[in-house]
Every structure is written in C-alpha cells, then in structure tokens.
Amino acid sequence: MIETPYLLFLGDAPDPLAAKVAQGIKDWRPENCVGQFRMEGCRADMKLPDMTLEEAKAAGAKTLVIGVANRGGKISAAWKEVLMAALDQGFDLASGLHNLLRNEKDLRDKAAETGRTLHDVRIPEVEYPIANGEKRRGKRVLAVGTDCSIGKMYTALALDRDMKAAGMKSSFRATGQTGILITGEGVPLDAVVADFMAGSVEWLTPDNDDDHWDVIEGQGSLFHVSYSGVTLALIHGGQPDALILCHEPTRTHMRGLPGYALPSLEALRDMALELARVPNPNCQVVGVSVNTAALGDSEAEAYLRQVEDRMGLPAVDPYRHGTAPIVEALRAM
Amino acid sequence: MIETPYLLFLGDAPDPLAAKVAQGIKDWRPENCVGQFRMEGCRADMKLPDMTLEEAKAAGAKTLVIGVANRGGKISAAWKEVLMAALDQGFDLASGLHNLLRNEKDLRDKAAETGRTLHDVRIPEVEYPIANGEKRRGKRVLAVGTDCSIGKMYTALALDRDMKAAGMKSSFRATGQTGILITGEGVPLDAVVADFMAGSVEWLTPDNDDDHWDVIEGQGSLFHVSYSGVTLALIHGGQPDALILCHEPTRTHMRGLPGYALPSLEALRDMALELARVPNPNCQVVGVSVNTAALGDSEAEAYLRQVEDRMGLPAVDPYRHGTAPIVEALRAM
Questions:
Q1: Per-residue DSSP letters for A218-230?
Q2: Where is the D-glutamate N-acetyltransferase-like C-terminal domain (chains A, B) (predicted)?
Q3: Mean of the pLDDT values across residues B126-132?
Q4: Mind listing the pLDDT tens digit for each residue in B38-96?
Q5: Of A55, A181, A293, B34, which one is least surrounded by beta carbons within 10 A?
Q6: Which CATH number describes the domain made up of B139-332?
Q7: Where are the alpha helices (DSSP H) in chain A?
Q8: Residue A332 forms contact with B (CB below 8 Å)
Q9: Closest residue of A to B255, CA-based?
Q10: How close B261 gets to chain A, by Cα (Å)?
C-alpha cells in the first residue's frame, strides 16, 4: 500500500506521452495529487501546482511518484539528486520503472537510513496463496479484450467512476503497474509466479458486501498467445459475475503478433463466458466497450449501434460517452 | 542441464512412495542411473546396485540426485553429511525439494569451493523470452487433462518411449520438477513469472526436423481454477499439432477443489482445441489416455471401449496397454 497523497515527479519528460503514468493518476485520482515536480526541460504538464519538495511536504504529500518513463532505461544523475533529496525530506518513493529503485545502492542506503519505503510496483511484495476456488461474497466485474492494450484499464476505471457516481459501492482493483500507482495498491500480475497467479487475484478481490462490486483491471487476452495464461488466471481467480468485452475496431493484427488476427467479439464472448462459468456458473456478459478513438463521431456512433444489434448488448466508448448503459446492466444483476 | 549419469540418493526414505522421484528416473531413464545410495533405515529400493560415493564415482556417476522427499521440510544433518561428502568427491547435486540446496550456506560454500553445481530444479535458471508466436518447424504433441495429477506426465513419457520404439524421432519435454530430474533438463513452468510462461514453452520446444515430435509434459488443467493459466500458456507457447486428452474416471471432484466437478472429455476436447487453434489452426485431438488404476481389467476394457465409441478416438491406459494406437495416429499426421 502506497501512502497518499502524492507529489507527481515528471522529471525531464521529453513529451506528454512520456508522462502517461502521471496523467493516469491525475485523471483518475486527482484527490491523490497535491502537485507536480518538474525539472528543467520538462515538456509534460498535469495542470497541477508546480511544487518544490518542501512545498509538497507542507501540503501533506507522503510519496513522490515517478510518473514518467526514463530514457535509456537508466535512472539519471539528475533524477537521482531529486530522489535522494525526497527521501531526506521524508517522502516514500514509488515507481513502475523496469529498473528498480531497490537496485540503486544509494537509494537503498538512503531509504534504510531515513526509514522510508521504496515501492517498486513491478515486483510483488506479498506472498500470494494458491487459489482455493472458494466462492466469495460480493460481486465482481472483469474487462476482457479481443487483444492486449485495447482499453481494459480505462474501461474499468471509467466503470468504477460511473458506478460510484450512480451511488453504487465499487472498488477498482489494479492488476498492472499504472493501475497500482493510480490507486496505491494492487497486484502486479504479470510479475507473479505462475502457480500463484489465480491466488493473487483471489487475494485482491476478497469477501465483501453483497452489493459491493470489485471492478477488476484486465490483462492480456485469451487469444494473445504471449499473455493468455495471465488472462485465464484473472478469469478463474476473479470468479467474475459479469464480463465486459473490450475491442478496438481498426486494429489489423494482435499486438506484437503479425499474422495473428483478432478474434470476433462473438468468439471472445463464448470463450470467456465458458471459462468464467467454471468458478461462477451465473457469470454473464453485460456489455461491450469499444475504443473508437480512430473513428469520427458518426462512424463511432454507427459502429456502436451495429455492435449492439449484433450482440444484443449495450456498447459504449467509455471515453466518448461514459459507461452508463453498462452500469445499469450491472445494477440490474 | 544436469550432467548424467546419476547416483540416486534415497536417504532414509520411510516407504517406497517417498522415493517416487527416484522411481520415475529408474523407470523412464534407467540408462541414467549407475546405482543407488541408501542410508540406515531406508525402506525404498530401486533394484539398482547399492553404492558408496566412491564406487559411484568410479562407475562414472556425475550427479547425486535427491530422489526422495524429506521429512518436515528440512534437510537433516544426516543427509547433509552425505551431500557435503558428495560435493567433496566431485559430484554435482540435483534436487526438486521445496527447500533449496542453494539456501543451505554450508552446501553453497562447499559447492563454490569445489567448483560443483547445485541444481534446484524448482527454480528457473534461464531468462526466458516473451512468446513471439512464430510458427516453428517440427511437430509437437501435448497432453491436457480434465484435472491436475491425472497422468499427463506418465502419458507423455510412455508416448515418447513408444514413438522411439516405433522408429519415430521424439523428445520428451519436461515442464515439472520430476520430469526435469528424469531427463536432466526442462522448464519448471509453475515457477516461471507470468509474463514469460508461454515464452519458456517456446524456448523448450524450438525449431526441429519436420518429422521430429516434441512430446510436451502437460501441467494443470484448463478447468482447474488454481492452475489453468499455466495450462493455457502451455497450449499457446507449445503450439501443438496434436492433443491427447487425459482422464481418471473415478475422481469425484477437481483435485483440491471440493465442489468443482470434472469437465467431460467432450468439454475438454472442445475448449482445448479451440484455444490450440489460435497458434496452430491444424491442431487435432488424436487420442484419450485414461488412468484406469482404480478399475478391474474387464471394467477398464469396457470403459476404454465406451470412450472410443463416444469420442471416435483411440483410448488407452498407457500403463496397462502402452500407447500404440495413439502413436499410429501421430504417425499418420
């Protein structure tokens, strides 16, 4: 569990895209952000107050979160100076970088000396159990995709937001590094050892109120040969009551796999549902979430109506329209 | 890669079952075993020559393999004495125990001093790639089960033996600790990090002659919620040309999961085949392997004939009858 609120470290981000982790935190948990820390040459801006470490500390920030990708896979000397000073001033550090904070001797020593915590969210910090398959109380919804990187996290975050706005009880359950930094907790599922994947998802989505929904962030795709095992562990560990199908209509092949076509929404529905009914025979597919960013307004609208007609399910682009019809379908369950 | 041949360490095995790893090595790779080492009170016997370390060394043994489960999860002082002496005499050590050889400081120091290797086969020793899904040359057959621990390793080893006897080119590809100790190499798939599971299976079953078969040891079950992700990684990483369905007809629920019924062979066939056709559209189910140990001869015979009629596939108990009809089906592909 990462302590909030955060000071977002944007470093020397060469462009806004490099700071997309910070953007995700700002978009989805603005209440967790007291400000941003930018170095000379930074070309990203979260429209948060620019703060020194001292100012952020005075404003209550507990953790400096690295919200930016580093160049060349190294933590530069310029960054290091800020990170060391942050530890000295009582901040914890949190990072989703491939190269771990804990592998930097000076940061490790400084954290030990100051009693602060280094959170490398790519690495599990919990000994997860083996899944036991026992039915848990409360409800769970999982986003599954025709491909990787197709909008499952965005869909889950939008659903969580819209369910809360509709007065429902819900918790976004992060399973990837960006999601973990956004919410401050979760399971870095792609880094969990095979035998414990499903158990980690059970651990992440425990017993809860009967009318509470866990909105579980999806990973991979049942049809993506590199990561499908991770997806199936989510389906079997999460024992979802409801599935949302995620799709992007202009993609020509599976991400990173030339020659592999995307499955149809129908094939995804049938496969995911049969597998989800192993732990939860009542599981239903309740809606389709389409990333229509590549389509114009009227094209997007036409595509969504066509999907609704074909599938007999509400279809939305959560970015363009929110998720209201899916929220209503979940409420009705 | 573990150097052969082996001296099998049976320690103070309280009963033959405790030495089942040694039994597997003796049954399937007798040519890898020069002898056995038994301590006082040992109640297991592989019917191999009893040897001292000196005698085994003189007979050419390279590795002392711990073929017995330890009591209470600790490496006892009595065992330790033998293991230390083995390192001194130039043996490598290999173990599938949960508590690792490398975590014993005296063994680690001794191995460093003598230049010997400690093989803990539960732990991956390779940095596996992420799966790329590219089609590889050569053929692959994978055993999938209606449940865990249902005879998939035995089926694969029997198939490999019978294919070789029939003059075909084949390699048993181990994916679990016992299989790795039997063959001296493989991937401890249940200990691989999620993102690299399918890639490790691609690594294990590389390009090969067009008429060569990799016989891949299965793990878990698509219908076992604790381990299904591992199974799917095998299916997608292994890109099998052929699947064998494994079943045990008297089991009342999924192993370790009371309340979870086993799927039918038909449900397993349909699910596994659809998933296997993502990387390999030509994949076929070629036979059924049934563990009939709990049935009498005529019951077993009747059960197998009934499965053959129902499924339209050859059905064998590899222990009772060998795998000849399945070998013929593979040869015909």
A1: P-S-TT-TTTHHH
A2: 130-327
A3: 96
A4: 999 999 999 999 999 999 999 999 999 999 988 777 888 999 999 999 999 999 999 99
A5: A293
A6: 3.40.50.300
A7: 20-28, 53-58, 77-88, 105-114, 152-165, 177-183, 197-204, 228-238, 265-276, 297-311, 318-321, 324-331
A8: no
A9: A132
A10: 9
What distances in angstroms separate CA B251 from CA A277, B42, B281, one per listed residue?
Answer: 21, 32, 32
Low-confidence ranges of chain A (pLDDT < 50): none
Mean pLDDT across chain B, nearest whole number? 96
Six-digit token string for B161: 């033996």
The domain locations on chain A are 6-120, 139-332
Would you state the pLDDT for residue A177?
93
Q: Contact, B189 vs B120, CB < 8 A?
A: no
Closest-CA distance of chain B to residue A10, Å: 28
pLDDT over 80 (residue B104): yes
Q: Distance, in angstroms, between A173 CA and closest chain B CA?
A: 18
B49 upstream amide cis, omega within 30 of 0: no
CA distance A178 to A184: 10
Residues of A in contact with B193 (CB under 8 A): 190-194
Strands across the sheet containing B139-145: B169-173, B212-216, B139-145, B242-247, B284-290, B315-316
Nearest Cα neighbor of A239 from A130, A139, A128 is A139
Contacting A residues, span 219-238, partner chain B, CB-CB under 8 Å: 222-223, 225-233, 236-237
Contact A239, A139 (CB under 8 A): no
∠ CA A68-A191-A108, nearest 5°, is 60
- State which CATH number among 3.40.50.2300, 1.20.272.10, 3.40.50.720, 3.90.1150.10 fits the domain covering B6-120: 3.40.50.720
Cross-chain Cβ contact B195/A256 below 8 Å = no
Could you tell me the CA-to-CA distances from B67 to A166, B55, B70, B191 in Å, in that order? 60, 19, 10, 20
State the greatest distance between any 2 C-alpha atoms of chain B, in Å, as a whole number: 62
Evaluated on CA atoms A205, A210, A214, A215, the torsion sign reads positive
Is A233 close to B199, i.e. CB distance below 8 A?
no
Angle at which helix B228-238 crosses helix B265-276, to 10 degrees, equals 50
Q: Helix, strand or coil for residue A93? A: strand
| CB-CB neighbors (< 8 A) of A133 in chain B | 225-226, 254, 257, 259-260
Write the pLDDT tens digit of every residue in B167-203. 999 999 999 999 999 999 999 999 999 999 999 999 9
ipTM for the whole complex? 0.94
Nearest CA in chain A to B195: A190
Per CATH, B6-120 and B139-332 having the same topology is answered yes
By C-alpha distance, which of B311, B289, B292 is closest to B162?
Answer: B289
Q: Give A295→chain B minimum CA distance, Å.
A: 28
A247 in helix, strand or coil? Answer: strand
CA–CA separation, B238 and B278 (whole Å): 11
